[in-house]
Design brief:
213 residues; alpha+beta; Alpha-Beta Plaits; 5 helices
Length: 213
Amino acid sequence: MLKIYALFGEEDMSPFKLESAAAAEIVKRELGAVHDYRQFLRTDEQFDGLQPAPYFGSAEFWLKPERASELQDTAAAIAEASGALAVVLGRKPDLIEHGAEHNITGTHRGDSGYKCTFLFNRKPAMALADFHHHWLHTHGPIAGKTQDAQRYVQSHIDAPDRTFDGVTELFWPDYPTAVASMASEQMRVDQATDAQNFVDGGSLTLFLGAETP
């Protein structure tokens, strides 16, 4: 699948005007290339000792691969958040990223609870293609063993105007499980050790969120 992330900075009000199901109906009707839609808000609970990303919400849009030619125009329409989309999104996104989604473990609609979104870049001297290859084929099998995770997703960002090279999503059933998983040896040692081979650690930003009802 192809995926578009629309990320919103923190303000006094939610960027979303409708619940997910109602919003999805409008999005799919107004953006013909969009196959599915979900929206997430940052939770009050975050991971201790980690600075969360400066994002409060994430609107997420999926397109089937055969609609790839419409990806850029769809992303541009989302960035404007005007017309019928203004009924769903209360303001323009602060950041738009899009690319190819790889569902490593779990199922698209089988997750619930808490999701951590990690945004990051490749090591400065590394080619984008090499970064994506290592992430998918070497790091993917390692991160796919994340303790108690319901789902692990990679989105490979390759747009010329991108801010980040990659977005990872990890889902857990509840906050205590997420905390224990992040503190596990598998995360702190196995994943962290390999991440040094391809990730610019200084670029990493993350936030814990949950899908709106």
